[in-house]
Structure formats: structure tokens, C-alpha cells
């Protein structure tokens, strides 16, 4: 079995039903959850979003909400000042320009305040099943350790390399599987190298890799 097939087989065995761990019920709630997850854990985001979306039940309510009221709900999350502003601005744009719907195109998504390439990729792949690989800190670290990218590669470079190496119909699942593998197994600090099923593919099984 080749390297790529081996990685896919191991990830399929470990995480057969990988999907986002962010909590959401409506499309725009996922967009806001992903926006909140920049430099924050999904667990910390999931702690604030139910209350946030319960207090502001619609996009229109978020559009009309005072920034301070949004801040109050998300203040346990890093960068909450700018995230609160971006939530309000994004809600305003979605209501005014997109009939209160999340746009499907990556370009439209990326034009929203606080939405970068990674967020646009996550939202497009989760909501609209657009084949993309969003490169976050976990995908980046795992790609580097598994020699799917060089240590110096930027997130964009890693994204391009992964899309070249893996078939398009596996991108969405692979993205979630790599996140789970990085979050729970190949952790930044103290990865579980002993008995790791991907040790043979790994660049530095015994050396800490950023
Ligand atoms: S051997 Fe360690 S560093 Fe390499 S993929 Fe496995 S857990 Fe990650």
C-alpha cells in the first residue's frame, strides 16, 4: 500500500464519521461559530454559541444588536472585541445583500468581515459540500509531520499540496479526519507517538515538530 492509501486507511479506521465538532443548527450559526473559532478551541466556542444564538435568535437580531451585548456573550473567547464587530458586520451584510442567507461562493464568503480563506473553505465544505481542504493549525501540523508538506510551507501551499495528493472526493472527510487526528492524537505538545499507526509515515516520530 502506498503512503497516501495508508494514511487514508488509518484515518478511515480511526475516524470513520469525522465531521465538524462545532455546534450549530442554522447555516449562519456555523459561519459565526467558525469565525469565533479563530485562535480558540471548538470546545470554548461551543460553550458560548448556544447562549449567543438564544439571546439573538435571528440574523436580523444580530444585525441590530449593540456590539457590547454581543461582546458580553462571547467574552470568554480570545479576540472577542474584533470578533463581536465582525459578527455584527457579517450579519448586516447577510441580511442586506444576501437575503439573510450564507453565500455559497468562496469569493463571496471571503469578502465577509473576519472571514479568511480557511473559514470560507470550512463553511463551503460543511454547508454546501464544496470539495475543499481548509488548513488550520491541526491540518498544518499533521501535514508537516506526515511529510505531506515541508516544515516551511504556508497554509496556502499546504492546501495546494493536499489537493494535489488526495482525490477530490476525499477532501471534505480528510479535512475533518486530519483535524481530529491532530486534536486528539498527533497533538502539538506530547503527541501519542507510541503505537501511532502512522509512525512509518512520520517525519519525526520522536522529535517535537511545531
Ligand atoms: S508518530 Fe507521533 S508525531 Fe508522528 S504522526 Fe504519529 S503521533 Fe504524530
Q: What's the CATH class of the largest domain, please?
A: Mainly Alpha
Structural class: mainly alpha
Shape: elongated
Cα gyration radius (Å)? 18 Å
CATH fold assignment of the largest domain:
Endonuclease III, domain 1
- How do the SSEs run, as a string of H and E? HHHHHHHHHHH
Count of runs of 4 or more consecutive helical residues: 11
Q: Report the CATH superfamily of the largest domain.
A: Hypothetical protein, domain 2
CATH architecture of the largest domain: Orthogonal Bundle
Mean pLDDT: 95
Sketch the major β-sheet: none
Tally of discrete structural domains: 2
**Helical content (DSSP H or I, runs of 4+):** 55-70%
**Would you identify the regions where 5 or more consecutive residues have pLDDT less than 50?**
none
N-C termini distance: 28 Å
Determine the strand fraction and express it as a percent band. under 5%
